[in-house]
Amino acid sequence: MTASMTARATTTVTARLLAAARLTATASMLALGLAAGFGGVGAAQAGEIRIGSVLSATGPAAFLGDPEEKTLKLYAEEINKAGGINGDTIKLVIYDDGGDADKARTFATRLVEEDKVAAVLGGTTSGTTMAMVPVFEDAEMPFISFAGAVGIVEPTKKWVFKTPHTDRMACEKIFEDLKKQNLTKVGIISGTDGFGKSMRDQCVKVNAKYDVEIVAEETYGPRDSDMTAQLTNLKGAPGIQALVNPGMGQGPAIVTRNVRQLGIALPLYQSHGVASKSFIELAGDAAEGVRLPAAAILVAEKLPDSDPQKAIALGYKTSYEAATKGQVSTFGGHAFDALFILKGALERAKSSDAAKIRDEIEKTTGFIGTAGIFNMTPADHMGLDLTAFKMLEVRSGDWTLVE
Amino acid sequence: MDDLSGSNVMADFVQFAMSGLTVGAVYALVALGFTLIYNASSVVNFAQGEFVMLGGMATVFLAALGLPIPLAALAAVAVAVVTGLLVHTLVIEPARGANAVTLIILTIGVSLVLRGAAPLVFDKQFHKLPGFSGEEPVSLLGALVQPQAFWVVGGTAVIVLALKVFLAHTLFGKAVLATAADRMAARLSGINTSVIVGFCFAMSAAIGAIAGILVTPITLTSYDVGVILSLKGFAAAVLGGIGNPLGAVAGGLLLGLLESFAAGYLSSTYKDAVAFAILIAVLIVMPGGLARVKHVERV
Questions:
Q1: What is the percentage of chain B residues whose pLDDT exceeds 90?
Q2: Nearest to B228 among A218, A223, A284 (CB)
Q3: Listed residue (A361, A377, A366) closest to A159, CA to CA
Q4: Are A216 and A240 in contact (CB under 8 A)?
Q5: Exposed, middle or buried: residue A74 (CB in 10 Å: 0-12, 13-18, 19+)?
Q6: Which residues 6+ apart lie within 8 Å of A59 measured at CB?
Q7: SS3 per residue for chain A
Q8: Which one in A94, A224, B196, B244 has a CA-CA gap of 20 to 30 Å to B89?
Q9: Per-residue model confidence as pLDDT tens digits over A147-174
Q10: Are the beta carbons of A284 and B218 separated by less than 8 Å?
Q11: Residue B106 domain-assigned?
Q12: Looking at residue B98, which CATH number applies to its domain?
């Protein structure tokens, strides 16, 4: 009894020391050997692997952070039930930054210095992610973000990865769709939050590549409740043929309703930032005909059987909806993808050495996730291409695949 | 293709004005709530925006439980009133000897508690209510307006009038005015000022909740809508000359109109900056706000 307790205590202490010192695999095997020597059975016992996460589970980005948190918890438990990662059980250390970048940075430091995690997932918004990046770069901590902005992985940062599509890809997918219909003059109405601003900046960079001209621009604040003034101006913009609304949260739903209210008959494109059923519910009938680029998960059932993503998307959707009684969204999917990319990397690395884990994340190829098929390279720390996006249209209150 | 001729200038103006009035009406109701409580107790209640949230969210959730919307709305107002009374009895009343800064910090604490509890009681998602008179836009002088906007503006007018009649023509209303004018003198004339202040909290909560219910079909609601509304409502109350109910309403409407016209005619990016710059300019010229109240020395 006493002997086994001592053994357990020794192992835990050793594990902590290991994480702290980031010893090499050889050293850690040696240390484990030592622990086993002292305690008798230490090495045989399953350890735990700590995975940190800083999410915006409350605050304005709660609709993103909430499903992400639920997804991480759900699948960490599932992985543990199935035997963990290399026999180690996952222990999640999750902090809620409330959407506040300053808090996110504080929690990032805490994960590095106090919790001694092996890797970090999350950073719900681009703002919180960018605030944490310097911390993890300095501490040499593998970090996979759930946020959209292209700036997270461009220029490539050694320790930083991300799973969602970038806002630039969303712009490109929208412009590609516009070009197909010979619509070349668009108006942009964007939110001034991090997501809206970042995507707008990307859109005005890539529009020329698709021969699309931006004829008018308007913005709205993240908590604005009426955008009719801005839309009235866009409606009057000469030659305007379509509207693009980079934004997330309730803003795009209000924009959509105001577009309908003002009787604007132009095609309206929303972004992947509102790719969840709640957008359709909030916008109501006004959402009919709205198009947006999004991950396959939203139309899991409607994907052709030949689609390699179908099985994984349906599986995630079913488990998530059964466990949370809520609607699946792409956002939780980003957490799913990141967790399983990390799981794969940990299994291949067979070590708690940060550099090895990082290298293995970077070597992720052919990983089929909810957002698409990931092929990471040293130059591409996201690993998705335009095919990962599906163009969806709202018809009769549901998503349908365009094409 | 839309008609781009000069006749649209008028339609645009009306469109901006209606948008501004609708948003401004909500600021006005929040400002009115600030004013009522401030008058009766000198407390600036920064939890005022949370009552708006409570009204909208409680209605949404009670309606989801199967209550018809009018009943859900009534129940939501009741929930807000009870919350207002609890805030008064549990937080403000025990600290009644404290200075204004302490009381303001207490109300900020209350707003944090309410905002923290809301996602547990309700959830973190955005919600909507159906428009009371449908969602088909109404044409007004060439502008297209959601029918709910008339409910918001009309509802605000009704509340302001009812409040005016109540304060001027009922004994209880006069007791509220007396408390506002001079708490000590009111108490000496036999008015239970503690009851009056409690009543003002209840009434402010009710007004906030009604604002929340009226506006949810247009603006949607979530557990954290109160923050920005408290801020803008307070700005409106200051603009109107804090302590003056009609000033509060004027301040709210003006702030809404400024935002909307700034977005429409100047730049949507800088609309808040423009609106607040004008607000500061007004306060520099008229330090007491639009409708300056006679300063009452409280000894």
A1: 52
A2: A223
A3: A361
A4: yes
A5: buried
A6: A65, A97, A98, A99, A100, B224
A7: CHHHHHHHHHHHHHHHHHHHHCCCHHHHHHHHHHHHHHHCCHHHCCCEEEEEEEECCCCCCHHHHHHHHHHHHHHHHHHHHCCCECCEEEEEEEEECCCCHHHHHHHHHHHHHHHCCCEEEECCCHHHHHHHHHHHHHHCCCEEECCCCHHHCCCCCCCEEECCCCHHHHHHHHHHHHHHCCCCEEEEEEECCHHHHHHHHHHHHHHHHHCCEEEEEEEECCCCCCCHHHHHHHHCCCCCCEEEECCCCCHHHHHHHHHHHCCCCCCEEECHHHCEHHHHHHHHHHHCCCEEEECHHHHHHHCCCCCCHHHHHHHHHHHHHHHHCCCCEHHHHHHHHHHHHHHHHHHHHCCCCHHHHHHHHHCCCCEECCCCEECCECCECCCCCHHHCEEEEEECCEEEECC
A8: B244
A9: 988 889 989 999 999 999 888 899 999 9
A10: no
A11: yes
A12: 1.10.3470
Give the span between the Cα atoms of B70 and A247, in whole angstroms.
33
Give how far B266 is from chain A: nearest CA, Å. Answer: 10
Q: Report pLDDT digits (tens) over A83-101.
A: 999 889 999 999 999 989 9
What is the distance of C-alpha B211 from the center of its chain?
6
| Shortest Cα–Cα distance, A64 to chain B (Å) | 10
Comparing A2 with B138, the larger pLDDT belongs to B138
Assess if residue B297 is contained within a domain.
no
**pTM for this one?**
0.77
- 3-class DSSP assignment, residue B44: coil
Q: How far apart are CA B260 and CA A230, in angstroms?
A: 9
Q: Determine the pLDDT at residue A40.
A: 34
**SS3 assignment for B218-237:** HHCECCCCHHHHHHHHHHHH
Question: Is residue A279 predicted with pLDDT exceeding 60?
Answer: yes
Is residue B14 assigned to a domain?
A: no
Distance between CA A199 and CA A189 in Å, rounded? 11
In the predicted structure, residue A38 carries a pLDDT above the cut 50:
no
Residue A239 backbone class (left: φ over 0; alpha: ψ -120 to 50; beta: rest): left
Cross-chain CB nearest to B264 (options A219, A229, A281): A229
- Number of domains, chain B: 1
Q: Which domains does chain A have, with CATH numbers?
A: 2-27+49-164+317-385 (3.40.50.2300), 167-294 (3.40.50.2300)
**A59 lies within 8 A of chain B by CB:** yes
- In this complex, the residue of B4, B26, B222 whose CB is nearest that of residue A250 is B222
Distance from CA of B123 to the nearest CA of A (A): 10
Host domain of residue B191: 24-285
Closest Cα in chain A to B7: A236
Q: Does B122 fall in a domain? A: yes
Q: What is this model's ipTM?
A: 0.82
Quote the CA–CA distance of B30 and B34 in Å, as a whole number: 6
Comparing alpha-carbon positions, the chain B residue that sits nearest to A237 is: B4
Could you tell me where the DSSP H helices lie in B42-146?
48-64, 69-87, 100-121
pLDDT > 80? residue B1: no
**Contact of A127 with A198, CB cutoff 8 Å:** no
Q: Distance between CA atoms of A170 and A187, rounded to whole angstroms?
A: 16
| B119 contacts A281? CB cut-off 8 A | no
